[in-house]
Task: inverse folding
């Protein structure tokens, strides 16, 4: 496939079919993880006759839903072209292979946005379709399709999660009031809603032990519909086993909690939802790389780093932050609490991609 041919395809009416499939893929919302967002349309005689998307974990895949949609409409799928944002799977998972569904439906051509780098697929889906007489075209709107599945793509290629950093600062860049004062939320209700959406996108939410001691957060998703999937794992960097036994991440059972310690010197009687891992390097430090490798081995595709400043800097200085969400409130905190600045994001190789108002707060998003 030549570059010129691909470009002309993307600008054509056929390219619009893939954009429609991308739009459908987004409907999976927060419910599909660890699977990626995938959309599919079936086209016959230049018209979309059926559509599908992966709606929730354990549900039909996009191709299967599109075929079922055609059946419900009484439309014959024989000879249709399927536009799908990700290479169809050719293995049994929670559902049968999508390649089998496409073959059974008599699809004559499949147009694929992004190839699947997962070792269980890696081109095997496209190869199987071609070997069974289906015409296959690949790489249409590839960048857009990969961006929609960015956490899944990174995890498949590196076995490490995509790292999303969330920070909130006051009008002067401070993240908290003086240590002797009680901490309090200062972002708007709209911004708090955005935080819960970010948690809902994530498979794990990470904080440092000082955040647990000072704020006692629950770190659970409240508000967004995450469907049948579990609450994100709570991860606490706790080198010296200082997390209080009565903190919410220990006692509330709302989500699994992973405590990352340096040594096995805790005599706590942890409940079933709590697990400890010991990751210290030879120098006694907890390296970001080892934490990411450990979480990647557990299948975590998107890690949200939520606080506090020492933890943010640990990931930024390691150049391991892929995306950042910075909320600046018009509120002025009292005292002389610690500060955080946008320059720390740019110094870590991130660039601002957008900014918008959120209930009076200025929210900016950053990306590598």
Result:
């Amino acid at each position: 496939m030549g570059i010129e041919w691909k470009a002309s395809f993307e600008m054509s009416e056929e390219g619009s079919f893939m954009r429609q499939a991308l739009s459908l893929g987004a409907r999976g919302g927060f419910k599909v993880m660890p699977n990626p967002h995938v959309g599919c349309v079936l086209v016959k005689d230049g018209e979309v006759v059926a559509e599908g998307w992966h709606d929730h974990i354990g549900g039909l895949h996009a191709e299967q839903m599109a075929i079922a949609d055609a059946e419900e409409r009484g439309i014959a799928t024989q000879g249709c072209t399927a536009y799908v944002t990700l290479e169809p799977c050719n293995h049994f998972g929670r559902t049968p292979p999508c390649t089998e569904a496409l073959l059974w439906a008599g699809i004559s051509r499949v147009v694929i946005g992004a190839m699947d780098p997962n070792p269980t697929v890696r081109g095997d889906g496209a190869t199987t379709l071609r070997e069974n007489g289906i015409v296959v075209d690949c790489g249409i709107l590839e960048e857009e399709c990969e961006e929609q599945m960015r956490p899944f793509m990174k995890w498949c290629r590196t076995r490490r999660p995509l790292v999303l950093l969330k920070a909130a600062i006051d009008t002067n860049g401070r993240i908290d009031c003086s240590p002797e004062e009680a901490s309090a939320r200062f972002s708007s209700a709209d911004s708090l809603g955005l935080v819960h959406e970010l948690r809902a996108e994530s498979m794990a939410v990470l904080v440092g032990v000082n955040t647990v001691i000072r704020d006692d957060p629950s770190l659970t998703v409240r508000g967004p519909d995450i469907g049948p999937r579990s609450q994100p794992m709570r991860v606490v960097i706790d080198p010296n086993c200082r997390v209080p036994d009565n903190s919410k991440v220990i006692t509330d059972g709302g989500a699994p909690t992973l405590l990352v310690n340096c040594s096995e010197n805790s005599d706590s009687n942890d409940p079933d939802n709590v697990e400890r891992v010991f990751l210290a390097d030879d120098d006694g430090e907890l390296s970001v790389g080892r934490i990411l490798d450990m979480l990647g081995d557990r299948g975590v595709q998107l890690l949200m780093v939520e606080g506090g400043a020492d933890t943010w800097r640990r990931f930024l200085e390691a150049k391991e932050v892929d995306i950042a969400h910075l909320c600046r409130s018009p509120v002025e905190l009292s005292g002389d609490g610690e500060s955080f600045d946008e320059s720390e994001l740019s110094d870590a190789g991130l660039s601002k991609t957008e900014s918008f108002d959120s209930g009076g707060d200025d929210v900016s998003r950053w990306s590598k």
Q: What stands out?
A: The first strand starts at residue 39 and ends at 44. Residues 207 and 307 are 5 Å apart (CA to CA). The radius of gyration is 23 Å.
